[in-house]
Amino acid sequence: EALYVLQIAMHLKGYNQEVQAKCLEKQMQFTREFQAKYTT
Questions:
Q1: How far are the Cα atoms of 4, 13, 19, 20, 25 from residue 28, in angstroms, in the given order?
Q2: pLDDT in tens, 17-40
């Protein structure tokens, strides 16, 4: 049972990293677009 919980924890950790990476990517893209619009 402990091993099962560990597997879930590892899966969630990997999932969280993936989500964080996607969010960071979106944020970077937004920042670039924002700068392109408002900086001259």
A1: 36, 22, 14, 12, 5
A2: 999 999 999 999 999 999 999 986
